[in-house]
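User: Show me an example of a complex going from sequences to structure tokens.

Assistant: Sure. Here are the input components:
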Amino acid sequence: MNGQVLPWYIAGPIIGLFVPLMLLVGNKLFGISSSFMHICSTVLPKSRVSILNYDAKKNGWKFYFTLGILLGAFIAVHYLTPGNKAFLPPEYFTSSGYLHLFIGGLLVGFGTRYANGCTSGHAITGIALLNPPSILATISFFVGGLIYTFIVVNL
Amino acid sequence: MKNFVYIILGIAFGILLVQSEVMSWFRIRNMFLFKEAHMYLIISSAIAVAMVSVWILKALKVKSLSGDVLSFKGKPWNKGIIFGGLIFGVGWAITGACPGPVFAQIGTGAYPAIFTLVGAVLGAYLYALLKGKLPH
């Protein structure tokens, strides 16, 4: 599609290396979706935080990691492969697009917490540990996404 | 100091997500349409490398940098894995972002992704509120 795309056989293995890296650096199992809980616990009034049943101290690293992702993405588009690549379709840059993304975001946040993990925690880390619930979670992610995509494209 | 390490790791991860376009809505759409193998190859090679790494760490009884015995405890089963998984899948297909990539999209300046993030944080809160009433 584009000559400047990092090929899968470099990107995939390096992404996989984050699992041992996180274990070595802090004895953490790699997973990102709980960062939503972290943001939630910092923006909620103190009196309501207990409802989250979330240990912000233990998971504080997720805030720094996700902040890093944001900075890294900024560096990539401004300094590494500058250009006008689009990562979202133009129809998402309208008010109805914002609403779509907001609703999609609600499903991402709700679904990942309900499933207790996402692509990083279940699909990559969980399957690497050969943990059966994570394999089922990953199948569910794809079934949900495939059904939705089939419906919007064909109906 | 430790937090600084996580920022650096995050920066590396963010660069990877952008350079490989894993955070692109178009890549996710093409994945769910089976139009290209890019995403499938990235996810499977990431899993393969992670799996081999875990085997090596276990076999050599490697400890963390601070000297702790590594914990490899997988996440427990409950019905939420399926229900939540399906819900997340739909959200993933709509937004073209799973939880890491949403931050990457924002970082590239694809500002509508801020709506995805606000939705996701609210969604996580909604789950916490409704947790007791949902099948698990």
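The lines above are the inputs; the final block is the predicted structure for all two components together. Chain A touches chain B through 121 residues (CB under 8 Å).
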